[in-house]
């Protein structure tokens, strides 16, 4: 299972050569290796599995914990919660983030809410239903054991956050309020106006700072992890750059946790923060950690449309807006330039309500996004033209304002509507908002077993950085749930089974593998600064993003993906010849930071396309043009593709190796999704 | 529109800084302020000048990482974060000065980037509720009256950007601290540590070199999350009570 590569330093700057088809190489692009299995999830009744694993996982004597060092990269919900919890337990934790403070991790931007199977509304919710909804929402491409555990600990998360002082929305009686959220029919979403992520993250951040004060956690902000140290097949530390002084530092430990978030910024324009990147997980991938389902990306339907070429990022508005807003475009393309208020009711196409009468505007994200693309492709998009197209649909609050009152709408959605107005200069209380899908979340990530351990022993992966719980599509309000589940409750219970085997032999910085890892980081930094070409890092990033959005975005085809792979290779080759990074290595150098991240995106992008190409079915966020029903809905092929695609790095000049992990459904019957 | 930018350039923490003038042309009113700086940085990069360092991350007004003094105002002319400020707030021909936050407790790292770790250390001093993972009771076991929950939430909206400090003539961090005191102090869960929290946080605040509050109110006026000035009253009241009780 853990066919881990030994540590090696590969010259990162060499462009991938043109690959010639060798025997066993599919499409000339990849080879297939041995299947893999998750050996950690217990068998038996699904509701007993997590308790059994917690019991079977070895314990670490409290007196020994302080002798064990755990490095945690990333301070979002997963990383922050894990650092705080392991600190409380008495381990010696070193926590890293690239931002100036752990409180800024991008979890903070999540708006809508967090799911938990509390059944406070007595509307038929249960742990099993949350599990069922999540497996179904993920289009039957996630593991039952993992998802059940997620649903099981969800209730504990709410208790924990309330105890920390997270100010969730409450009813007049003083009890917690819930709302329903995209894709489900029960009200199980806890929220704090449109700032749920912020409030949950501040809770985790405060718990983390409490441990910093207690001396159990040492905080390294403005530090970026640039390499994993793998010694004798085990993850034993990281190489990080102090972003202020430029110093390359070696940090050694008994285990390493990556909680570094998703890779949506491979598309350049996404709702991710400017600094969100794949570097931590990609460097680990190159050292032997399998990357699972990289093509599973989520396009969020309710974002503010692109305004022009200068755009640096896209802003999401919580899809809770779909609870009360109605989505439409004009029936006739000729009306697209009109003031929407002058388009009469009978000339509007409320297309989601028309196509999906039972779920209407609350269909899952992938469906809402693709239908928006379809109506715009038909020429019925609204808003300004960017390029040749109008890319926008209306999200209309007129009915809600009549039904509720402006005050009630403001109470529920005020900050979102204000944000819209600030960005677009239009007043959503008077004019329907315009929205368009944008890349928002990546379900793929490093492959992990039930213990959240990657294919490198001692390297654990939590939160969005792993692939484990959302299958091919994530339901709304489930990212916060998974981040905190992993950080507070799962990882601290599973990592102890590994740590109980330690402390591991003391490592010296002079160890050969450590020296090599550090030298490779140094060499890469120097290389980036020495190319001194003609093009800025951003220009490469934008071009990569355009390729990915065009060919590996909402709809993918064999022809497009093959083209994208060629384009990416050419671009990567040019990057290493022609990028221009000014400044020096020994100060704050934001261009250099970006250059390293884009270099890794240029490699990841190719793997995403290969993954999308090999999966000749549509499922969740992955829509292959060749695999759709007569109605244009995603068509899965469970007989061929009910597996996790875990990719092993094939070396700088090699081809990636596909390892399949079969997905077995014992408790949920696989069905074709229908939201009609 | 065409603009003249006067921007603070400083090579490093100990280097001497200066204002440098950069004209920019063809700026769209739909650009955010930071996208306008992105455009300038691309131009600087193309002609071999090192781009201007400035902090930003989420660019949707919630992470608190961005923050510039724009023509003398923290986050510029609108009540919002720098990343959410759009160029439609300016006019063709404007001259705009751009400086980093200025406060002893926020030393400059480079150009427009400052070190705000003093805020983290104030939180370390007591800006939390001690509740180890796993020790929490059932969430509904402690109801919180909605007015208190709402006031707590209002204060918890603070994003820790530091505009309050930058706007204050005394470079005081009282609004930031008052927001945390109010967020946690309004909740039943926050009561056991309430006295110790306020004393410890105020002590750390003063130790970091922030100034005292003289009721100017510039902090609240500059706050992108509109934290009201009365959180400072709450802070003072809590501090007075805690000291009287011998904390």
Automatic annotation (TrEMBL), chain A:
Keywords: Flavoprotein, Oxidoreductase. The keyword Flavoprotein applies. Residues 70-480 form the FAD-dependent oxidoreductase 2 FAD-binding domain. SUPFAM superfamilies: FAD/NAD(P)-binding domain, Succinate dehydrogenase/fumarate reductase flavoprotein C-terminal domain, Succinate dehydrogenase/fumarate reductase flavoprotein, catalytic domain. InterPro entries: FAD-dep_OxRdtase_2_FAD-bd (IPR003953), FAD/NAD-bd_sf (IPR036188), Fum_R/Succ_DH_flav-like_C_sf (IPR037099), Fum_Rdtase/Succ_DH_flav-like_C (IPR015939), SdhA/FrdA/AprA (IPR030664), Succ_DH/Fum_Rdt_flav_su (IPR011280), Succ_DH/fumarate_Rdtase_cat_sf (IPR027477). Gene3D superfamilies: FAD/NAD(P)-binding domain, Fumarate reductase/succinate dehydrogenase flavoprotein-like, C-terminal domain, Succinate dehydrogenase/fumarate reductase flavoprotein, catalytic domain. Residues 11-23 have a biased composition (Low complexity). Residues 1-23 are annotated as: Disordered. Residues 541-675 form the Fumarate reductase/succinate dehydrogenase flavoprotein-like C-terminal domain. PANTHER family: SUCCINATE DEHYDROGENASE 2 FLAVOPROTEIN SUBUNIT, SUCCINATE DEHYDROGENASE FLAVOPROTEIN SUBUNIT. This is Succinate dehydrogenase flavoprotein subunit. It comes from Terrabacter tumescens. The gene is sdhA.
TrEMBL record, chain B:
It comes from the Bacteria. InterPro entries: 2Fe-2S_ferredoxin-like_sf, 2Fe2S_fd_BS, 4Fe4S_Fe-S-bd, 4Fe4S_Fe_S_CS, Beta-grasp_dom_sf, Helical_ferredxn, SDH/FRD_Iron-Sulfur, Succ_DH/fum_Rdtase_Fe-S. Keywords: 2Fe-2S, 3Fe-4S, 4Fe-4S, Iron, Iron-sulfur, Metal-binding, Oxidoreductase, Tricarboxylic acid cycle. Pfam families: Fer2_3, Fer4_10. Its EC number is 1.3.5.1. Residues 145-180 form the 4Fe-4S ferredoxin-type domain. Its cofactor is [3Fe-4S] cluster; [2Fe-2S] cluster; [4Fe-4S] cluster. PROSITE patterns: 2FE2S_FER_1, 4FE4S_FER_1, 4FE4S_FER_2. Belongs to the succinate dehydrogenase/fumarate reductase iron-sulfur protein family. This is succinate dehydrogenase.
């Amino acid at each position: 299972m853990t066919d881990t590569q030994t540590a090696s330093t590969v010259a990162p700057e060499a462009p991938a050569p043109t690959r010639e088809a060798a025997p066993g190489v599919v499409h000339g692009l990849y080879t297939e290796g041995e299947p893999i299995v998750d050996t950690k999830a217990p068998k038996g009744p699904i509701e007993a599995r997590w308790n059994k694993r917690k019991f079977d996982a070895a314990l670490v004597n409290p007196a020994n914990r302080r002798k064990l060092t755990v490095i945690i990269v990333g301070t979002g919900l997963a990383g922050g919660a894990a650092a705080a919890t392991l600190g409380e337990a008495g381990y010696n934790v070193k926590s890293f983030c690239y931002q100036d403070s752990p409180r800024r991790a991008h979890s903070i931007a999540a708006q809508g809410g967090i799911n938990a199977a509390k059944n406070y509304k007595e509307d038929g919710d249960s742990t099993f239903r949350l599990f069922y909804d999540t497996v179904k929402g993920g289009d039957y491409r996630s593991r039952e054991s993992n998802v059940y555990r997620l649903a099981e600990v969800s209730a504990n998360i709410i208790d924990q956050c309330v105890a920390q002082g997270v100010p969730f929305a409450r009813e007049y009686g003083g009890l917690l309020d819930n709302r329903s959220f995209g894709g489900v029919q029960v009200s199980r979403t806890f929220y704090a106006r449109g700032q749920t992520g912020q409030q949950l993250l501040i809770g985790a951040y405060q718990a983390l700072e409490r441990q910093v004060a207690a001396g159990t956690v040492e905080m390294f902000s403005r530090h970026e992890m640039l390499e994993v140290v793998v010694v004798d097949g085990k993850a034993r530390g990281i190489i990080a750059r102090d972003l202020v002084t430029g110093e390359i530092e070696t940090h050694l430990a008994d285990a390493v946790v990556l909680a570094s978030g998703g890779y949506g910024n491979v598309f350049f324009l996404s709702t991710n923060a400017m600094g969100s990147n794949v570097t931590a997980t990609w460097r680990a991938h190159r050292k032997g950690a399998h990357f699972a389902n990289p093509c599973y990306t989520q396009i969020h339907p309710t974002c503010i449309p692109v305004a022009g070429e200068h755009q640096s990022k896209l802003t999401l508005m919580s899809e809770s807006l779909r609870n009360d807003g109605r989505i439409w475009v004009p029936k006739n393309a000729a009306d697209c330039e009109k003031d929407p208020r002058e388009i009469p009711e009978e000339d509007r196409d409320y297309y989601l309500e028309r196509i999906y009468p039972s779920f209407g505007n609350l269909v899952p994200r992938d469906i809402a996004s693709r239908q928006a693309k379809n109506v715009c492709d038909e020429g019925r998009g609204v808003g300004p033209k960017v390029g040749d197209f109008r890319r926008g649909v209306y999200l209309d609050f007129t009915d809600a304002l009549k039904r509720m009152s402006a005050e009630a709408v403001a109470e529920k959605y005020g900050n979102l509507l204000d944000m819209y107005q600030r960005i677009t200069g239009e007043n959503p209380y008077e004019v329907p908002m315009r929205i368009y899908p944008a890349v928002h979340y990546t379900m793929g990530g490093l492959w992990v077993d039930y213990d959240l351990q990657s294919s490198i022993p001692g390297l654990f992966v939590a939160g969005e950085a792993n692939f484990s719980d959302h299958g091919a599509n994530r339901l709304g309000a489930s990212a916060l749930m998974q981040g905190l589940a992993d950080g507070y409750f799962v990882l601290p219970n599973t990592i102890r089974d590994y740590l109980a085997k330690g402390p591991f032999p003391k490592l010296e910085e002079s160890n050969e593998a450590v020296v090599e890892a550090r030298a490779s980081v140094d060499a890469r930094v120097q290389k980036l600064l020495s190319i001194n070409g003609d093009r800025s890092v951003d220009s490469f990033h934008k071009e990569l993003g355009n390729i990915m959005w065009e060919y590996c975005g909402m709809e993918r085809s064999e022809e497009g993906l093959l083209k994208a792979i060629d384009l990416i290779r050419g671009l990567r080759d040019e990057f290493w010849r022609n990028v221009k990074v000014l400044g020096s290595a020994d100060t704050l150098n934001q261009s250099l930071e970006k250059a390293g991240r884009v270099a890794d995106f240029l490699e990841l992008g190719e793997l995403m396309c290969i993954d999308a190409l090999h999966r000749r079915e549509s499922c969740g966020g992955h829509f292959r043009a060749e695999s759709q029903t007569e109605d244009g809905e995603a068509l899965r092929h469970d007989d061929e593709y009910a597996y996790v695609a875990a990719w092993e790095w094939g070396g700088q000049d090699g081809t990636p190796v596909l390892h399949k992990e079969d997905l077995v459904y014992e408790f949920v019957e696989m069905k074709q999704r229908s939201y009609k | 529109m065409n603009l003249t930018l006067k921007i603070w350039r400083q090579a490093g923490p100990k280097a001497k800084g200066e204002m440098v003038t950069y004209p920019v042309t063809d700026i769209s009113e739909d650009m955010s302020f930071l996208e306008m700086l992105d455009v300038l940085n691309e131009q600087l990069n193309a002609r071999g000048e090192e781009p201007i360092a400035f902090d930003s991350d989420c660019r949707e007004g919630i992470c608190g990482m961005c923050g510039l003094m724009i023509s003398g105002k923290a986050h510029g002319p609108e009540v919002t974060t720098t990343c959410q400020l759009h160029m439609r707030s300016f006019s063709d021909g404007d001259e705009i000065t751009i400086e980093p936050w200025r406060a002893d407790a926020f030393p400059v790292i480079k150009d427009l980037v400052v070190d705000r770790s003093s805020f983290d250390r104030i939180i370390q001093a007591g800006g939390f509720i001690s509740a180890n993972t796993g020790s929490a009771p059932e969430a509904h076991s402690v109801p919180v009256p909605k007015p208190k929950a709402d006031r707590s939430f209002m204060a918890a909206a603070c994003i820790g950007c530091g505009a309050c400090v930058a706007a204050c003539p005394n470079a005081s961090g009282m609004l930031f601290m008052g927001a945390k005191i109010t967020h946690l102090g309004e909740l039943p869960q926050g009561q056991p540590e309430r006295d110790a929290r306020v004393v410890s946080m105020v002590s750390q605040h003063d130790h970091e070199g922030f100034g005292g509050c003289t009721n100017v109110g510039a902090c609240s006026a500059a706050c992108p999350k509109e934290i009201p000035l009365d959180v400072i009253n709450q802070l003072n009241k809590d501090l007075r009570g805690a000291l009287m009780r011998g904390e």
